Amino acid sequence: MDAFKYTNGLLCCDGHSITDIANQFGTPTYVYSARAFREFYGALRDAFAALNPRICYSIKSCHNVHILQTLLECGSSFDAVSIGEVRRALEAGANAADIVFAGVGKTPDEIKAAVELGVGTFNAESAMELDVIASVANKARKNVRAALRINPDVDAKTHPHTTTGKDENKFGIEIGSSRALFQKHKDDAFLSLVGIHLHIGSPVNTVEPYVEMVTKALELVDQLKTDGLTIDSINIGGGFGIEYGHQASASAADYAKAIVPLLQDSGFKVSLEPGRSISANAGILVSRVVYLKQSRTKQFVIIDGAMTDLIRPALYDAYHFAWPVVPKDGMTPTDRSPAFRIEGATPVDIVGPVCESSDYLGRNRFIPPVKQGDLIAVFSAGAYGAVMSSQYNSRNRAAEVLVDENGPRLIRRRETFDDMMACEREV
Ligand code: LLP
Predict the structure, then answer these.
(1) How far is the CA of 239 from the centre of ligand 1 (A)?
(2) Looking at ligand 1, which residue's alpha carbon is closest to its atom 15?
(3) Residue 94 contacts residue 72 (beta carbons within 8 Å)
(4) Can you tell me whether residue 376 is helix, strand or coil?
(5) Where residue 344 sits, what CATH number does that domain have?
(6) Are 199 and 62 in a shared domain?
(7) Are residues 218 and 299 in the same domain?
């Protein structure tokens, strides 16, 4: 599916002109397709149907409450990693019972608030955290369900910043010590530690690390059985890759084909925590060209979007395909990869106005010629885009627009100078 398509020489989101959206709402602006969110969610649900999994959309990837509502309508549950994300899900209308609360450093206050709100499952990551959850549950006299996040020491073969399942990563509990923890909590009055949680990184573009991780988890379950303990659920996390244009990724069907047979007869309730695979290709960042400039060795296209809007290139050297919204002579992109060349043209760096040399959205790109005032779309920006934006250089965060059956609508207004100053003035 492709929500963002060139039609008659101009980029549209589900038939709505991106130029019109940019003219109406200004730039930089994130534009999302509700249809795309639904279809990517549906693709995972269908691929994994044999497991009838609970799909807990990972809020952190794109947390706008209107988008959470769109996913809620699809039947989604939610993966939250702070009490703020728990509250976002509730604000969208989710049931607390359909929220899993993960995170390596949930504070006792967050745990207390989440227990009071009735959050469905806690994904615990340390012995000390389990003690806090047990004690909060006891005091509140509320039954709390928890899963233990296992660190399976599996290499997800992704960026070191987003690898989470290796021994040296801060996440989860090493398999060897997990047995003792399950033992320790088996008779807790209000805490039921009955699940296993895994998440080894993001994006994980191949299926093998999942197979390795699930296999290790199932071995642990067998050991726990011999210890007389019962596990009723397994949450295999998120991390499914998507097509950014620079490297191939397994599809939802590929992941399912490898994972489903391992879990199909296990009798476990299975959960998934996909973020990127639902949100990334459901959104683009639209910016306007402010200036063009030529150095001795480089040609720069300076746009009004920046690393403050989309930090992934600066932070992970991540690749995002970029192309003019109304390309000269209607040139449509035939190849989204970094290897793409235009005969006789000079490559450009697409950069923002922030005072950092790492403030770029694309480097050495062959794009059709652009002029001042033209619009450029940065693709696959729905995941870890708006959510990781900042006010660095005192820039206002971008607006967000959602295109649905009724057309484009603003789902987050552009921040203002007064928004930015509020926390400093109200002291
Ligand atoms: N579950 C857990 C426990 C996670 O830590 C994450 C992501 C997910 C699920 C969702 O993973 P996804 O399906 O979205 O790959 N900022 C980075 C990605 C950080 C991912 C953090 N955890 C980026 O821009 O690539």
Answers:
(1) 6
(2) 239
(3) yes
(4) strand
(5) 2.40.37.10
(6) yes
(7) no
Phi and psi, residue 346, nearest 5°:
-105, 135
Helix (H) / strand (E) element for 30: namely: strand 29-33
Q: pLDDT tens-digit profile of 274-298?
A: 999 999 999 999 999 999 999 998 9
Expressed as residue numbers, the domain containing 165 is 34-278
Asked whether 103 lines ligand 1 (CB < 6 A), one says: no
Q: How many CB atoms lie within 10 A of CB 300?
A: 15
Q: What is the pLDDT of residues 345-401, one digit of tens each?
A: 999 999 999 999 999 999 999 999 999 999 999 999 999 999 999 999 999 999 999
61 lines ligand 1 (CB under 6 A): yes
Residues 184 and 286 in one domain: no
* Pair 247, 315 in one domain: no
The arithmetic mean of pLDDT across residues 88-108, rounded, is: 98
**Enzyme catalytic residues:** 355
Pocket test for ligand 1, best of 61, 235, 281, 390 (most atoms within 8 A of CB): 61
Domain end position, chosen among 245, 278, 311: 278
Residue 256: strand, helix, or coil = helix
> What is the mean pLDDT of the segment spanning 166-188?
92
